[in-house]
Amino acid sequence: MKKEKTSLLKNSAVQSILASLLCILLGLLLGYIVLLFINPTGAWDAISTVMKNFFTYPSRPAAMKYFGSTLVKTAPLLMCALSIQFAYKVGLFNIGAAGQYVAGAGACLYAALAWHMPWWVCLILAAVAGAALGALSGLLKSYCNVNEVISGIMLNWIALYSANLLLTGVKEPASPYTNVVANFNSSALLPSLGMGKLFTDNQYVTIAIPLSVLVAIAVWVVLGKTKFGYELRATGYNKDAARYCGMNEKRNIILTLVIGGALAGVGAAFMYLSGYEQWQCTQSSVPAMGFNGIAATFLGGLDPIGTIFASYFIQHITSGGAYVDKTMYCSQISDLISSLIIYLCGFVLFFKYFMNSRIVRREERKSLKEKEKLTADSAAKTEEGGRK
Amino acid sequence: MLLLIQYTLIFASVLTLVALGGCFSEHSGVINLGLEGIMVMGSLGGALAMKYLPAGAPALEIILLVVLCAVLAGMLYSLLLAVACINFKADQTLVGTAMNLLGTAAATVIVKAINTAEDPDNVSSTIQYVNAKKAFIVRIGSFEFNWFMVMAVIVLVLAYVVLYKTRFGLRLMACGEHPQAADSVGINVYKMRWAGVLISGMLGGLGGIVYITAGVSEWKFETGVAGFGFLALAVMIFGQWKPIRIALAALLFGLFRALSNVYTGFDFLTALNLPSSVYNMLPYIISLVVLAFTSSKSRAPKAEGIPYDKGQR
Amino acid sequence: MEETYAVEMLNITKRFPGIIANDNITLQLKRGEIHALLGENGAGKSTLMSVLFGLYRPEEGTIRMNGKEVSIKNPNDANALGIGMVHQHFKLVECFTVLDNIIMGVEPCKHGFLQKAEARKKVVALSEKYGLMVDPDAYVRDITVGMQQRTEILKMLYRDNEILIFDEPTAVLTPQEIGELMEIMRNLAAEGKSILFISHKLNEIMAVANRCSVLRKGKYIGTVNIADTSREELSHMMVGRDVQFEVTKKPVEPGKVILQVENMTVASKLHQNKAVKNVSFQVRAGEIVCIAGIDGNGQTELVYGLTGLEPLESGRILLEEQDITRTSIRRRSAMGISHIPEDRQKHGLVLDFSLEDNLVLQRYFEPQFTGKGGFLKRRNIREYANHLIEQYDVRSGQGPVTAARSMSGGNQQKAIVAREIDKDPELLVAVQPTRGLDVGAIEYIHRQIVAERDAGKAVLLVSLELDEVMSVPDRILVMCEGEIVGEFDPKKTNVQELGLYMAGAKRGAEQA
Q: Is residue B192 included in any domain, yes or no?
């Protein structure tokens, strides 16, 4: 019985889950403490509102509807998280996912509104735009030795201003927002295949949600089961060894960032082609989706399947932030909590190390005890023998 | 033209301060990607000081207190990086990124809470400091001279002297180049890295307050500092981790950043009729191009980014 | 009459998870003597010295200096007690000057500002007194390994250390430089300094030491007077059995030319000059050719050029008469080059992969292991891994799924050797294949290399160990400053002659 327990704790998947849960708990706790400082009376209500999200609606249909909305935003988040994760396996930190997401948004909205393209063309163009940005980072990394984090950040801003510039051509005359896709070109909306009905006629629920889960599974398969994934992981763990055995490191770096960029670009298409949001052409900060993806991917233990759940959780609390009592707190407290969680994810390795060393120590103590018992037994036996 | 020089100098001051901050951290062996967040926190500290200082306070008092608050805020915030990356050996990229997100989120939450407490209808994340800001500015004709420019020069000279002429500088750089060697002659690597990170926090915080007082008299904290922390890192790389070169690189980048503020003042630029987004992009594009040409032979501190583990040799 | 020792380490025990690195070890160092500490890799020498230097705390045992018990908690304590150490891998900051490196940690200062002038005077005086010539203003990255070592020695002298520890100091030196180092050590001992000399090289210990303590597998074996012992006795103490110094092999029967290198020139990334200059040679089937030389004379770049890790600046490489100068690493490997790399952890293995994934690192893409659609055939990989593990006796905790990181150095190297030899190459390039291994593993790997040669393969061995250079190959090429400066038959030459060529003091036409 006891043996089973230790071996379960030794399992690295179990450790990852425990570490992630610990991050969440600590993140919520710290967030709660911040709320207490701001206004002690409503802190508990606020944090439970963030956690409840759509459950705050008493009626089941309403709750289902907003559950649907949370899922709608989970799909793009998951895609951004996968983009970062894919690159991370090759040892690259794709902070440029945020900009690739922006590029995807610009491409798909422009194609939908200016060129009146059907949804699948818009989707492909979004992927291409994201991939192009990723390729740029990859080229700079492999041929000019520019750190992908720095180039990614620069490209984020360049993408943001470019998208603003481009989409100003298709915005509503009276507002800074782009035209509503549903009114201008409904063929560009992602098909829903009747899934909206499950969520109390939430018209934003589309195939994006199942597609994103399928992509997560695909990423898992590619990384774990294929030759390509083997090469990528080898490059990520030890690029010198990868080069030594003839893998093309430069090509793999570029290819990885291209794929990562495409994933983030598609994520943007999942967002804007569902019609859930319009692009604001005067935006002066990069959308948080790409950065929240970092939280989701690390919280998911750098595992595609775990990331599905982690993405949902991050989106759940982000959406939940919208329901807090505005007279006391602002909706950014959920940003605060998710960034605290990212910070805490930095300690995951330490948590795991701590768990492992505890296990080793316990086992050593146990084996020492057994040994002592054994020697004591044999000593007792010899004594007995002597008596006889 | 004068306006362009004025903006160039003030933005160059920001970049110099923050890049020198990054320089201290990296020479000690820790990559500080959280400079952006540190700037936000520093600017928040300074802005709050300006907000709460009595209107009639003498200029010197205002300057000293505001700078002190910004430096302190930046330094306290950099503790997060130091604890995680030096003592717990966390991934420096991840922690830096988290600090940037956390900086903006926390500053927004704090400012909104303060604003809402004062006036329940005010849900903005803006702090105004029109009056206090005047303390920093000396008008010379139409040129607005800013005391922060002097501060940047002083910090530059100090940074040079500290790095190359003192025992502390020698030991600091040893920790970034070859921590095992430093350890073997009895230098406490952890301590030196803590010092490097805290100095970078102080300078980053100072840079933050300079940035938000450059040109404007109020700041909306939701926007953070628009990638300026990263521009400073680009300046540092372009400056090859050397103070004097960093200052020169900062002038170049400051010029392009200033252009986006004042391009309307130049007839030939307005004649081009480019949208403002282009000027907004310019500093980032320039830095990408510059990095592409300078990174391949970069002389970064050898051990930067690698957590130091006493047990591992 | 009881003699007081300069240092006594009494009954030291130091455990690490899973192993006892030092098991009740006692070491006594007399004033003014050169005391050798002999043992194989992994015998516990480094751990013991780390304990003395304050890097590790022992679980049991005491340290006494001049008869008084002392507590050494960190290198600072060791320094304060006058203990200094020249580490095997030099602890020098490359972008600092020699002077900066020497004073680092004990800088003369006024109000925190460095006072380098007086430090320089002291350094110059010391270097003259002990004959340690270095330029205090040169940058460490620009000076030779020998000078770097002298800088390390000056570091100890500058601190007025009385106990000097030399950890494997000769590994990177030429035979002539080794001679000079020994002269320096004798001078230091004559001045009253006490020296601990860590080595696994018997000849050097016989030449310079007064007494020698031997460790084996973490245990203390004994201490002997060098005057009363022999090389054979020492080696028996070190290994625990009689050691064969010779490698047994059949007479050489070279076949056709497998590898032909013509005028190869390779640029050096580090130093902006040419690392390999206009080098030409051949390797035939059924012979072992050894590239000998001191570390850093272009051997690494030569191998990089051969295997495709670095492009050639000029010249040609022919493998079985086919030009492979511009072909990719993967293609060269497929054409029959196997490469046992210099640094098994940097190049040879993906440490975070399992053993089985490492064993297919050179052939995972073959149809045997990758099916249609790019999916890996896990079952075939497992079978192949099990086959190699059994045939080459690779030992690990959990068989094919063991993490490579958790394996011992010897077994990691065996896994690489298995992988590279099982590829059935035409040319085996083995770079320092026995580095850091114990005698058993060294013998094993030498046997494998000779077996390849006997099977008619061409073998190019790159080695820094003179024992290996003299015993394994059929032909020796000496490399110095990027050029091949001489060719020798191991049966007709000696270490002294090779040394002159390795140091660049002599160079000449081919010599049969």
A: yes
The answer on pLDDT for B187 being more than 80 is yes
Contact call for C107 and B187, based on CB within 8 A: no
**pLDDT given at position C362:** 92
Q: How far apart are CA B43 and CA B222, in angstroms?
A: 12
Nearest CA in chain C to B175: C93
More confident residue, C404 or A366: C404
Set out the domains of chain A in order of their start, with CATH numbers.
2-379 (1.10.3470)
Binding partners of B (≥3 Cβ pairs within 8 A): A, C
- Which residue do the tokens 């007064």 mark? C210
Best probe of the B interface among A36, A158, A289, A357, by most B CBs < 10 A, is A158
The domain containing residue B209 runs over which residues?
2-297
**Would you call B184 and C76 a contact, using CB atoms and an 8 Å cutoff?**
no
* Token couple for A86: 């894919």
Q: What angle do CA C29, C34, C37 make, to 5 degrees?
A: 70
CA distance A267 to chain C (A): 26
Q: Distances from the Cα of C415 to the Cαs of B291, C408, C426, in angstroms? A: 42, 11, 19
Q: Is residue B139 part of a domain?
A: yes
b/e per residue A365-378 (b: at least 16 CB within 10 A): eeeeeeeeeeeeee
CB contact under 8 A, B166 and C112: yes
Q: Taking residues A295-311, what's their average pLDDT? A: 90
Nearest by CB to C94, from B171, B177, B185: name it. Answer: B177
| Predicted pLDDT of residue B147 | 87
Nearest to A241 among C348, C364, C375 (CB): C348
Is the CB of A329 less than 8 angstroms away from the CB of B113? yes
The SS3 call for residue C268 is coil
CB pairs under 8 A between B and C: 63
Q: Are C502 and C177 in contact (CB under 8 A)?
A: no
Residue with tokens 């740029």: A136
CATH number at residue B190: 1.10.3470
Interchain CB distance below 8 Å, C113 and B177:
no
Q: Is B308 a member of any domain?
A: no
Taking an 8 Å cut-off on Cβ atoms, the answer to whether A165 and B277 are in contact is yes
Residues on A contacting C at a C-beta cutoff of 8 Å? 225-228, 230, 233-234, 237-238, 240-248, 360, 364
> How many domains would you assign to chain B?
1
**Owner of token pair 């990212």:** A342
The better pLDDT of the pair C241, B310 is held by C241
> For C127-156, how does the pLDDT look when each residue is reduced to its tens digit (9 = 90+)?
888 888 889 999 998 887 788 899 999 999
Which residue of chain C is at minimal alpha-carbon distance from A226?
C375
Q: Return the H-helix or E-strand segment holding C244.
A: none
**Using one digit for the tens of pLDDT, what is the confidence trace for C341-357?**
988 888 999 998 999 99
Q: Is residue B159 part of a domain?
A: yes
Burial bucket for residue B59 (CB in 10 Å: 0-12, 13-18, 19+): middle
Is A360's CB within 8 Å of C374's CB?
no
Nearest-angstrom CA–CA distance, C492 and A145? 50
Task: Show Cβ contacts of residue C205 under 8 Å, excluding neighbours closer than 6 positions.
Answer: C36, C38, C197, C199, C212, C226, C234
**Rounded-to-integer distance, Cα A124 and Cα A122, Å:** 5
Contact C105 B165 (CB under 8 A): no
Q: Which residue of C has its CA nearest to B177?
A: C93
Burial status of residue B292 (CB atoms within 10 A of its CB: 0-12, 13-18, 19 or more): middle
* Record: contact C350-A237, CB cut-off 8 A: yes
Note whether C163 and C196 are within 8 A (CB): yes
Chain A environment of C376 (Cβ under 8 Å): 225-227, 230
Closest residue on chain B to C95 (Cα) = B177
With a cut of 70, say whether residue C508 has pLDDT above it.
no
